Amino acid sequence: MLLKASTLLGRLQLFRNVEVDSLSECISRCTFREMKKGELLLSPEEENTNVYLMISGRMVVYLDLDEATPLTLVEPGDCEGEMSIIEGKNPSAYVITSEPSQIMEIPQEVLWEMINTSHQVTRNMLHIMSLRVRFSNVVIVDSLGTQKECMRHATIDVLTGLHNRRWMDSMFEQEFIHAKRESLSLSLMMLDIDHFKTYNDEYGHINGDRVLSSVADALRGGLRPNDMIARFGGEEFAIMLPETNLQTAIGLANGLRKRVEKAKVKNDSGEVLPQVTISIGISAIGETDMKNEDSLIGLIAASDEALYRAKKDGRNCVSE
After folding, report:
1. Domain of residue 66, residue span
2. Which one of 55, 127, 163, 184 is CB 3.0 to 4.6 Å from 230, fit for a cystine?
3. For the chain, how many structural domains are there in total?
4. Closest to 186 (Cα-Cα) out of 200, 164, 171
5. What CATH number should be reported for the domain holding residue 308?
């Protein structure tokens, strides 16, 4: 069954802080679709006349269908197709479902009506477009040289399937700036796998890679549509929680910690490997009792300090 729009709109980027009732007539003219794994949503060979909002599932973006590594991911809350409508051109990349997905399809004429009706929709669309320009996947493929250049800027960590540090540096920075400008709460988690070096030494790097993938899956499955996750490096991960205060973030962090603790990883023989745990450090901005960090680097450093305290407190815990 397709999820009901009324329970989802506020969690999508385009409708953040929007009075949904004022758009009820527009929303009634939108389509909600279920897509199977491997379905093509956008293609450079086909004209696009819709904006697509990702409700659930996952999609990947390729400049060329022969490429082995996707350029970027489309995850719940994300928006696709808006640039081809604004520019009046075909999409510049292929967008394909990598797992069963649910989307909201907004015809371009309905989008313009929404923008004319709601100033907040206009602000949200400008924010989406600024992120797109900052880290653009609107690339016109003229030559093999252009394709190779884009491949060098790929944003996916191959092992875990999460976004990588390159993507994080750009997108986290934009979200931080947005939160500061709009005086919004924002929380950042830094976390890593406890005793991972010892685990690698005892069970081998192949099983260590399996653990990294398992932890990534457990974390991704416990996040909300607008939350942002990246592999920071090694066994360390970073999660940004837009419009989330410290206490809410602590609750989410403990939920993620328990998900990882329950995850099962098997070796080549099908035997279940010993469980791993994670430690999490959290920092936040946006309220009087939160940190007054002026940069993303400062917020990351504060979360790292909290992570160190979590390790010192015995691991498998959350610190702020």
Report:
1. 5-150
2. 163
3. 2
4. 171
5. 3.30.70.270
Which residue pairs from 143-152 have beta carbons closer than 8 angstroms and sit at least 24 positions apart in sequence? 147/63, 147/64, 147/67, 150/63, 150/71, 151/63, 151/67, 151/69
> What is the DSSP track for 72-138?
EEE-TT-EESHHHHHHTS--SSEEEEEEEEEEEEEEHHHHHHHHHH-HHHHHHHHHHHHHHHHT---
Q: Hey, which residues are catalytic here? A: 235
User: What integer pLDDT is reported at residue 12 of this predicted model?
Assistant: 86
- Residue 156 is assigned to a structural domain of this protein: no
CATH code of residue 121: 2.60.120.10
Residue 159 lies in a domain: no
pLDDT band at 304 (very low <50, low <70, confident <90, very high): very high
